[in-house]
Every structure is written in structure tokens, then in C-alpha cells.
Amino acid sequence: MSDFLYIFAKKFKMGFEAGKIKDFFIQLFKDVARTVFILFRIMIPISIIVKLLQMMGVVSLIGDALFPVMKYVGLPGEMGLVWATGMMTNLFGGIIAFLNISQGLELSIAQVTVISMMMLVAHTFPIELAIARKTGVRVMAMFSIRFIFAFAFGFVVFKIYQLGGWYNEPAVLAWRPDISADNSLTAWALAELKNYGLIICFIFCLMLLLKVLKIIGVIDLITKGLSPFLKLMGIGKEVSTIALVGLTLGVVYGGALIIDEARSNPKIPKKDIFYAMALMGLCHSVIEDTLLMMALGATFNGVFIIRLFLSMSVVFLLVKITKKIPDKIIYKFLIRKVKHKEINLNPGV
Known about the structure:
The protein is mostly helical. The protein has one domain (2-176, 198-343). The protein has helices spanning 2-15, 21-56, 58-66, 79-88, 91-101, 109-121, 125-135, 139-164, 185-216, 218-233, 240-249, 251-264, 270-282, 288-295, 300-322, 327-333. α2 packs across α7 (125-135). The chain is globular and about 60 Å long. The N and C termini lie far apart (50 Å). The relative contact order is 0.12.
């Protein structure tokens, strides 16, 4: 351990020999400010719109539309409202809807795993699709990928468990979050401000960590380690580390880093960005979100192992298929050309 710390300190010191620490932090704060501005410019107006749609009952209408199709994944129709809430708000919104609606339904472990899988793949659409658009991915393409495969993944899990006769026993909640009875706009606004504060802290810590890891050479090691695996999938090394961030932390943070990286390195292949965003869309926040769903009664093999395997398989096939499609069609349906002003920090743009 002491040898590791010595090597770490030595590389860290060498990394700053070419520049001053002050310049490092000035640039860090600029990068964080630019990234946070980009995210908040997307998130704040969309959050307000979504809240208004909730108050108008639009989410309930979407849930009613999904009611009849839930039987194809072995779920009661009421779970359509749970999924719709997760898609229109966020994962926690879906969890709260699940806790309220699932009472009295006596769902099995298999059923909880299915709805958990569907929520994990398809949630927070208004914000996460807008972020995907900023990276250069067309909204309808990302929506289609996440919505269709959320249902497909749920169907696969349902059939696997049904054929094996597994997990038919009633699900047991290992954790029930405190649900505030205050539904006022003030409570909602305070919760949103808290979330924005946490996002700023996350972005700062994440970008600081990535810069330090880059200085001491860890990023290069990670890239080299992931390159053969991601190369097999067809994802370029330029976005390999960011794809890893998205897998572990989520689309918001991975997408924010891709936006920042695209600004500083416009030569990154647009297809690689699309593949990375597709992978992150299907499988992200694998630690936190997996634990949340397991606390609701879902199985680890369903929401982690099967999800990860299916996501990587889909992206692998997606890469193989799109490689054979002319770029003209790719840019028409999957990728949009991002103008530089879209990722500029200037608030007047």
C-alpha cells in the first residue's frame, strides 16, 4: 500500500510540473460551471413542464394507455401507471408510485423484477432525452431504443422466470422510503433545489477525479483495459472512460461529460458518441439503481446480470447493423449534427 501511495504521489507531482495547481483549479471551475450551466439549462425548464403535466393528469393518461399491454410482461395493468410515472418524472417518482399502487396486489418477486427492469431502462425521459440530444443523438432514436428495449427486457425476464418456474413467491420490501405527504409546489421546489445542489457537488467531484486520474495515468490504464472489450462492441476508446462513468453513475453525468468532451475534442466520431449513449441509456447507475430495485424485492440476477448482458448484446448488434448502413441514413434518423453554440457556455446563446 505504501508503494502504491508513493507512486501515486510521484505521478501526481510530475503531472503538475508542466503547469501550476492554480491554473488547474481555474480550468476545473470553468469546466464545472460550463457543464452545470448546460445541464441546468436543460433540466430546470423541463422539470417545470413535467410538474405541470403531472398536475394536469397527463401522466395518468399515459399510464392508462399502457394498462392493456402490461399483461404481455406478466404484470397487472396498474403497473402501467408506475412505469409511466418513472418515465415522465424519475426513478424515485416511479418507486413512490410503485409503493402506493402495489399495496394489495401481492406481486411476486418475478413481477417486481420485471417492472424494476423496465423502470431501470426507461425513466426520466424528459431530462435524459434532452441531454442525449445535446450530445448529438436524435431524440426519437434514443426514445425508441430505451422504450422498446425496456419492454423487451421485461418480456425476456418474464419468460425466463416463467419457463423456469422461478421467483413465484411474494416479494418482500427490504426498505420503504419516507414518502412526504406535502405535495405543495413549495415542497417540490425545495426538493428540486436540493437535487440541483447535489448535482453540482457530483459534477465537481467527478470532473476533479477524472482530471487527477488523467494526470497520474490511470485514465490511460482504464482505457487500455476497456479498449479490447469496447472494441469488440464497436465503441471507440475516445468515449470508453465516459461510457464507464455513465454505466456506474448515470446518463446525466455520463452525458454531461460527453458534451464537455465533444466541445474540447470535436474529432470524436459521432457514431461512438451514439453507441456510448445507447449503452448508457440501456444500462446506467448499475450500483445505486440496482440496490434500490433489490430493496423493493427485485432479484440481483434480473436487474444487474441479465440487464447488463442484454444491454451489451443490444449495443453489439446495434453497432454491427449500423456499420452497414450509409451515413446519410444514420445522420437522418440516429445522429444529429451539433452546432458549436449548443455547447457554448455563453448564456446569451
